Amino acid sequence: MRDVAVIGVGLTKFGELWDKSFRQLIAEAGSQAILDAKIEGKDINALYIGSMSSGRFVEQEHIGALVAEVSGFSHLHIPATRVEGACASGALAVREGYFSIASGLNDIVVVGGIEKMNDVGGSQATAILATAADQEWEAFFGATFPGIYAMIATRHMHEYGTTKEQLAHVAVKNHANGALNPYAQYQKPITLDTVMKSTMVASPLGLMDCSPVSDGAASIVLCAADKAKNYTDKPIKIIGSGQASDTLALHGRRDICTLDSTVHAAQQAYKQAQIGPKDISFAEVHDCFTIAEICAIEDLGFVEKGKGGSAIEQKITTLDGTLPVNTSGGLKAKGHPVGATGVAQIVELTMQLRNEAGKRQVKDARYGLAHNVGGSGATCVVHIMEAM
Amino acid sequence: MRDVAVIGVGLTKFGELWDKSFRQLIAEAGSQAILDAKIEGKDINALYIGSMSSGRFVEQEHIGALVAEVSGFSHLHIPATRVEGACASGALAVREGYFSIASGLNDIVVVGGIEKMNDVGGSQATAILATAADQEWEAFFGATFPGIYAMIATRHMHEYGTTKEQLAHVAVKNHANGALNPYAQYQKPITLDTVMKSTMVASPLGLMDCSPVSDGAASIVLCAADKAKNYTDKPIKIIGSGQASDTLALHGRRDICTLDSTVHAAQQAYKQAQIGPKDISFAEVHDCFTIAEICAIEDLGFVEKGKGGSAIEQKITTLDGTLPVNTSGGLKAKGHPVGATGVAQIVELTMQLRNEAGKRQVKDARYGLAHNVGGSGATCVVHIMEAM
């Protein structure tokens, strides 16, 4: 397989974007990435789009072709494919675009991720998100994701002594990082007290333990690595890509505190990159709820199982810690337009590895890791990147 | 890129399957394909699933992981990815599976296609299907697919003198073929008179010009060609794959009687296969409406533009004609569970090229072509196959 690099990135601000449509958002992120890569439409061999539920959020399926059209490429008849794996849709689109170049078929591929979630009401958004859970064994009985992750948190507390304060530290850290990111939905620091006293959603998770409902889009341009330097001085190579599945419903798992899909996807990515968790300089992980970040840093091998809570408390994962996690603000503060998230993580890795992350720049970063989860872990995708 | 072959196929009966669930259907098709290929779960490197709108038809997104689970593979953590491009979702899944092997990443991949459409009411099904059209420029104003294809038919009649009788001949032929296919939704021949007098849906298209609302699933097992003979004596190779896009709405097209996405996808597939339209022995084309088959045989280069209607009337495309088209019964008589259709076309090509198509077997077939369209042509995928 050929090596593949990112040569351009684009991002919209994440948030409640009442004045921008689905079409405007994806065109904005895509055109930014294309300008950043200094390519033209005729250079693009294919488009891949990640979106979880455009059919329910904006009543529009068939968005691959739509994205090609709103980007002004209809006359070029560029193949355009939508990929879906719930909240991991973005990373799946990255992976399909990556393999289409690695195979030798394509040289340049644009990958987009998008979700426009606020055009439906809040309770409707929660119901739509629950279509990523098992409809027959979970959603039918009233379980939605806050409740599902609350069960994981409760068990993690019971097994490992993780505390509500440790969960809260995740939110505090990610809001501190989000405050340094002009694209983040929430750009103000919060205190531990704010998180601890936030309205209870599903015990032990309060409102400030939950990522928000967001609108937004992200885009990257992928290029065969041997041609990347024709377009940019700073191509960022994908050196590892892993993907794994698990049961849709939580009750089928070996252990509800471990996302085996993360463990397996990470193993694949580390093996391909020929490095281990100790080599990672910084990571974007899937913190849809604070407990999810604690599980992630354990399952990715950064800390021992059960030690995630204390690692967060010891500030190992802050911007000036030994392993900065969610420098962008993460899903928690940057926002979580679900289909966009996996692509936005690659945008953050690229900006950090280019040394263009401004106030939130990680020093001397060599290897970045992105971890994108669908549902409560039925799908996981891990990518590892390095500057060329 | 490595060569790729089909080593196993599976299909459920298509129809109004009130007694089978979404989960049962995909497990049935998948297990048939796996048994046919004589492989085990541990041999499978990845799953790809095509489905247009599981989120709206059965309120379940994230079906990649679900299919892995209901197939009994959760413990293997096999990567599972859903692909969507409206009614071309099935062929897009085939294409992603194909490239994942061609790249060298995977050796064996199972591809499934599914739609369970009857669990919602008929008018709701039409509304869901319209999410494959442009929601802002078509569906919002009340246009659904029968009306959109009726516009294509009206213009084709005006430009080329195509007649309602010629449209009706498509339905008569495809029902005659469907009568020979035990998996078809409709297994009885119909007369020209029945089609001509059927209830008007959108002039000039009557009920018998339209493909039905269907439940069903299809599955194939893809294998690196150099390993295919370890599993079967009759591997069927994919020798060409093409994909192209166009505007989502009809009004943006250069010519509404020509699907440029078909023209471009076919050019790619012919070029890769190093053959031309005259070499094709038989084809499965996307006859969601009778007019669509007429456009398809023109745009695929089988007949000159405007001559599709007379070619059908001259019985060139019947089972004993010079170029049999839709030997399975096509979408019209076999049924059209949208996400399954593109995979089911590959199943039919494989059965014909294995010489296992029973009463509808094409004699001395060498090259088979499958043509799968999303919406009114915003997405098109063409595959060409040959026995190894």
Describe it.
The structure is a homodimer of 388-residue chains. Chain A has 14 helices and 11 strands. Chain A is 36% helix and 19% strand. In chain A, helix 4 (89-102) packs across helix 14 (338-353) and helix 7 (164-178) crosses helix 11 (290-299). Chain A has a 9-stranded mixed beta sheet, sandwiched between helices. A two-stranded antiparallel sheet of chain A has the order 5-6. The two termini of chain A are 17 Å apart. Chain A has 388 residues and is an alpha/beta fold. Chains A and B meet through helix 3, strand 3, helix 4, strand 8 and helix 10 of A and helix 3, strand 3, helix 4, strand 8 and helix 10 of B. Strand 3 (80-84) of chain A pairs antiparallel with strand 3 of chain B.
Task: List the strand order in the largest sheet of chain A.
Answer: 3-2-4-7-1-8-11-10-9
The name of the CATH topology of the largest domain in chain A is Peroxisomal Thiolase, Chain A, domain 1
Number of helices of chain A: 14
- Biggest interface found: A-B, 61 and 61 residues
Number of domains of chain A: 2
Low confidence ranges of chain A: none
CATH-defined architecture of the largest domain in chain A: 3-Layer(aba) Sandwich
CATH class of the largest domain in chain A: Alpha Beta
According to CATH, the homologous superfamily of the largest domain in chain A is Thiolase/Chalcone synthase
Beta content of chain A: 15-25%
Calculate the mean pLDDT score of chain A and round it.
97
* Helix content estimate of chain A: 25-40%
| Radius of gyration of chain A (Å) | 19 Å
For the sheet with most strands of chain A, the description reads: 9 strands, mixed
Tertiary shape of chain A: globular
Compute the separation of the termini of chain A in Å: 17 Å
Number of E-type strands of chain A: 11
Oligomer: homodimer
